[in-house]
Amino acid sequence: MSHERPHVETPPLSTPDEGEIRARRSPRHTHQEEHDDPPPETGGYAVWILAAGMLVLALARPRLTALLDDHEAVQAWLTVFVSIALQALPFLVLGVALSAAVAVLVPPEALSRWLPKNPAVAVPVAGLSGMALPGCECASVPIAGALVSRGIQPAVALTFLLAAPAINPIVLASTAVAFAGDWRVVLARFLASLVTAIVVGWIWLRLGKDSVIRMPRRARSDGSRLARFVDEVSHDVLHAGGYLVVGAAVAATVNVVVPRAWIDTLAGNLLVSIIVLAVFAVIVAICSEADAFVAASMSAFPLTARLVFMVVGPVLDVKLFALQVATFGRRFAMVFAPLTFVVAVLVGAVTGMVLL
Hints:
75% helix; globular
């Protein structure tokens, strides 16, 4: 007798395609590519800033209590604060409006048509084009990101990023008003800011660090140009206005709260005063259209140190660092920020010692 096994039809085995095999082999790699450099969480920065502010208030409580009882000191603080804020506000609003118009109306391809093919020559051309396309530092970062995403050499786009908020006509006009028409300061700021942007661009071109740039995928905003313009202006005025208020308050507090002997000690040493005001520019994060008024109010410091403050602020501060992380990636910002700071301090100091 034959004992044949019953025939049972089994379903055909499905073979995974090539895409599934790659996904199974390297799931971590795929996830890392999609989320390589997520935008920074601003909540963590806010907690640390709040904690630092509370610590400063706690340490300065005796001094603040004595000053609050002194009506003349309170009046002096209010006078400095209001004068800085009111003088700077028109330039800030005008600068934000022009910046929004550039971001909405001027396509990034327009700059690429003006640039030479040689990157080494295109770097200074991009720096000078910052005068024709004015914009605050908050708008220059996304514009530079759009240029890189459209194939512009990163060193060229970064030069424009640094130059546009520092040498545009609104910033130069506000500097002239803040320093009572002293054109030495205006010329020194223009030359130091332009040279800083060009030198950083050339160094970046020489370093060949384009591989650290990680451009995130961004959804394009819909809506009419007018709606986008209104949205840009309303957002930037509130954003930059908040930093202006904080900067004016800090400058007024320094003028009133900090003992004059301390300021005289810091201001008496040129090197120390340059470092102090350079770090102060990074922390206080004032919009470039308004920082000249804060610099002019710190009359105890040498002009060279105040020039460094105006050169460093538009190219590097805490909000710009966060924007650069969100636009180009964390690895980029960790390389680009120290490079920009060192070049800005050195160029600003040398320019101030020569021209001022």
